[in-house]
Amino acid sequence: MRKPVIAALTTLAASAALALPVLAGAPAADATSTCTSTIAVADVYVSSTSTVKVPGKWTDECTAIFASWNMQGGPGFGHYAGGWNFSTTSTSADSYYDPAIDPLGKYEAMPAGAQDDNGDDVAQGTIYFEIRLSSKVVVSGYRSGPNVFVRALVTRFSPSANSGQGGWVAWPDRQVMFASFSQGWQQAGSRWTTKTGYTRYLKISAPSKRSFRATVAGSGTVWSSTSKAFRE
């Protein structure tokens, strides 16, 4: 059972007050400081069924000696998924995303309390980040005279594949944009993926050898991705 983030804010070294997680929509404590304490959290790419570390960095301590943020996701950011506790001696902390119980999509780093060494509240900033499944694009093709025919295979990670062991599966009905390199990357056309994850071949005029690549747009739960260059 996941333990809630503890906003442990002390006014004396010998006494500590434990704060329950702040629920989505609950007002933050009144702040008497003149600056804002902030956190940085990078977007997360999920490509396994293992618990994923979500590092947090206390980017501006302001005047605080303690600060905590909760990691909230789901509808209305009402799903509590851990969080980060910082002190002046520990400005980096990790939360964790569990693919088995935590939702994908947009997350909020929600202020859960910060105080300075006088016991006064310090204002905290709120940030947002995304947790989505990874995707892959692979381009292949062949040359026929002055033309090159290319296609793409698009897959995404699925935690439920292989009886819950996770794996890469075809990502159908996705538009794939192709580009060729000639004094810079130039758009060359698009194709849609089929149920197998493959697109139909796209004919591109290329009298001389050159590189090609493809990009698939993301969705609310899957990241976009661009292939490695294919040269023909």
Shape-level CATH architecture of the largest domain: Sandwich
How many angstroms does the end-to-end distance come to?
54 Å
Q: Can you write the helix and strand succession as a string?
A: EEEEEEEEEEEEEHEEEEEEE
Shape category:
elongated
- The counted number of beta strands is 20
Instruction: Quickly count the helices.
Output: 1
Strand content: over 45%
Description:
The structure is a single chain. The chain is mainly β and 232 residues long. The protein folds into two domains: 9-132, Immunoglobulin-like, CATH 2.60.40; 135-231, Immunoglobulin-like (Sandwich). The protein contains one helix and 20 strands. The termini are far apart. The relative contact order is 0.17.
Features:
232 residues; mainly beta; Immunoglobulin-like; 2 domains; five-stranded mixed sheet; five-stranded antiparallel sheet; elongated; disordered N terminus
Question: What's the arrangement of secondary structure elements?
Answer:
Elements: E1 9-12, E2 15-17, E3 36-41, E4 44-46, E5 52-60, E6 64-73, E7 79-87, E8 92-97, E9 105-116, E10 123-124, E11 127-133, E12 135-144, E13 147-158, H1 161-164, E14 167-170, E15 175-181, E16 185-192, E17 202-205, E18 211-216, E19 225-226, E20 230-231
Parallel strand pairs: 3-10, 4-11
Antiparallel strand pairs: 1-2, 3-5, 5-8, 6-7, 6-9, 9-11, 12-13, 13-14, 13-17, 15-16, 15-18, 18-19, 18-20
